[in-house]
Write a structure and sequence with these properties.
elongated, YefM-like fold, 76 residues, alpha+beta, 3 strands, 20% helix
Length: 76
Amino acid sequence: MTIEIDITEAHRRFLELIQAVEQGEAVIITKHHQPVVQITALQPPMHRPTFGSARGLMTIMPDFDAPLDDFRDYMP
């Protein structure tokens, strides 16, 4: 749901509007019946992986950089 409110009324009810935004509502502040500002909740930051957190999940085979059989005809 979206709440439209005049800027003077928004000034008086600011904490109430913030609580509404925290509950998922969008707030549009108007001035002379024209939209001026929209307040929406921020998305939580994405979790950044910790260095070394994938240790042990992958292994590189000893022949990783060996020529592929499919390309033997093209090799000198």
